[in-house]
Input
Amino acid sequence: MTIETNSPEETEAFARKLGEQAVPGQIFTLNGDLGVGKTIFAKGFAAGLGITEPVSSPTFTIVQEYREGRIPLYHFDVYRIEDPEEMEEVGLDEYLFGGGVCLIEWADRIRELLPDDLIRVTIRKNPDRGFDYRQITVEGGPDENSGN
Output
């Protein structure tokens, strides 16, 4: 599925809908260039889970846990990871299989550590379409992976 948004509010609203539909055990990867709106997406996604506390990118902490929503959210930013094995120190497997939802920014850096049945979200800008224009593509998940 690919959608287009024309404001940060529209991007956040779309992400909120995905968060409302999320179920425990799902893994969402979030890819896009710097400044494309990954944190805005994460804020909307968290709101869809019922999380009201401020959401920011965990660039320096690697993972931020939010437990106040209907299911826990484990928000990763692995931009600064040099070697995927560093994720063992963070306890990646416990998060992936811990009964919450994982949202992983820059997931391509640790792709070999992730299961195949994840949901890939890619955000792209197109300056020709305006400063706030975003194309958001969502691929994977149970429907796509099962052939339904």
